[in-house]
Amino acid sequence: MPAGVYISSTNIFSPVGENTAETFSALYAGESGVRSMVHKKIWPDPFYASMFKKYPEVPGYSPFESILISSIEDALKYSRVNANDEKTILILSTTKGNISLIESDANIDPAEISLSRSAKKIQSHFGFVHTPLLVSNACISGILAMIVAKRLIEAGIYQHAVVAGADIISSFILSGFQSFQAISPGLCKPFDAGRNGINLGEAAATIVLTRNPEYSNGIRLAGGAVSNDANHISGPSRTGEELGNAILNATSESGITVKDIDFISAHGTATVYNDEMEANAFHIAGVQHAPLNSLKGFFGHTLGAAGLIESAISIHSLLKGIILPTPGFEQPGTTQKVNVLKELKHQDVCVCLKTGSGFGGCNAAVIFQKMITN
């Protein structure tokens, strides 16, 4: 294999499944974690979301930390990367971390909810040598964490990176999206003419990256780029130019052309403005004809875990030659038309583009490439 940064293993720990293979099989069968929830402590009325029936119980750790530990454990089990190796770094992505602890204990020590506290506890649990890095940049956190890992590995600072992300649903999070009138009253409909908001989700995911081709599962993280449109604290760019630039920069770094992209895993939140912006960006970058899916109808929007979960599924798609459909999509609903998949597609695929955008105008894009060996 050529020099590069490779995927060693992945995990998805979600209400849909507790590992990537199990989760992919469930999605292949059309199963979704999103359903009507009645959770009075979070919201007085029923709402659609993907939530755990019961969090794993790891003594001494919060639900947020426990799902992260469960995900990292499984990913490391299927990787030859050692958490105790001084050449390995842990990178965590999240948007809100332990914020839900405030709702259960008003007198809690603020130090208990700090992201650095959780990171150090997880470092200690696994025995990582170095202080973990934290990436908390709205909904691109998971993708950005992978880009940070890639650059650290390419710079020779580390040889391996365990990139893990998680978020759980709390009243704080749900009420925040409700205040934007961004929550759909039913199942979300990415890129659809009738889309009216997001469904939230909770989950953890881990992707182990390595410089060592012998540890690779056959997929390379070929390129990545970020941008910011500086449009509005919560509203995305109206033109999509900035995400389009991130896509072009990611493809340039990967050494491929946009014509080489076999499918797109879009952010696809099912809000009016995000999907419109993404469709514009795909046209600006010249990738509008590539088959596209949004996985939000399966997982909900899992915030800091979203980029990692959707990347893990995309990596599995490359390995299996299967592109998943977009739950909720029926009729095209963006000004610029894009090739949204309504049904499963079996096709030999080698290159995937994964995109993400978030509050504050942040955008990110990464390229995954299946390596062809003789």
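That was protein one. Protein two is written in the same sequence-then-structure order:
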Amino acid sequence: MVAAPGRWNAWARSELDGIRAAGRWRSPRTFDAKGPEGTIDGRHVVSFASNDYLGLSAHPQVVAAAHDALDRWGAGSTASRLVVGSRPCHEELEAEIAGWKGTDRAVVLPTGYAANLAVLGALGGPGVTVLSDELNHASIIDGCRLSRSEVRVYRHRDLDHLEELLAAAGPRTIVVTDSVFSMDGDTAPVDDLARLCAGAGALLVLDEAHAVLGPDLHDGHEGLELLRVGTLSKSLGSLGGWVAGSAPLVELLVNRARPYIFTTAPTPADVAAALAALRLLRGDEGARLVAQLRAAIDLVRPGHPSPIVPLVLGDERRAVAASDALLERGFLVPAIRPPTVPVGTSRLRVALSAAHRRDAVRDLVAALDELGLR
């Protein structure tokens, strides 16, 4: 059926024309791959765009666990868990996450995005103040908007500014931050944040989606109330999100969080894959993969604290041209530009993985140097 001309189609075309004119047109490309290497338009390409930091999406044990779950429970979870019930793998994964993070309870959601919406939507509201780092992920920003709370944004990693806002906030305050920031690859001062929140009686919400190498929150923060949020979709190579914390807070999410109550549960295959990946991560195999990842990062930027290495170029067109030049050389490195990052800070975002061959990383470094990008 051909869309009829009308106001909405005319408006959409006008908006698309504006996106093209601004040089911000985007469309997904087909990357036929398992792991970091595959083909684009029939040409071999090594991807430095993926968040599969430990390469577990293609690990044989992870893939086998997904296959077994498909055979046992089928392709879908069929409804919300409060309606249809949980599969055993949902409960096993939640127990494993709680053990991993040292918390009473954990709950699994369909995506990491949904996890942030769940926490801020369920715990926020009139009478609540949310203090959010200015470089937090879009899912946190949207969760703040949906929470109906008073939202104040503190300068990036600025503890003095946060302390000022905490002093002026009401008795029910949430401080929310990424622990690793997704476009800059830098880290939050998590122990200092915990100290401030414990002193002010604020709930600290840490989104650990990209925190495969830390930062780790140390013990000793007496009185701290904490929720940890994460994803199954990056270091664990699957799809989904999770929240871990005290039993009352997690049980409140199960009873109040709309992204949990009104959405079909994560599929058994995704959950079983994540469970297998997490068990690998917590064992000797995980330690080996983390060491491989650390070595890959150090080839690009020694000592950098995360697998996300930004190369800030400023101009949008320069970033796109640099990404295109790298693709011509067989490397998929995305150009990140507004509105994802502020105007004037367009960049290449290099994402490293334990699955990258060392010679492929060295070849990328050589290409970056050849193009004057590093």
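The mean pLDDT is 96. Keep this in mind for the problem set.
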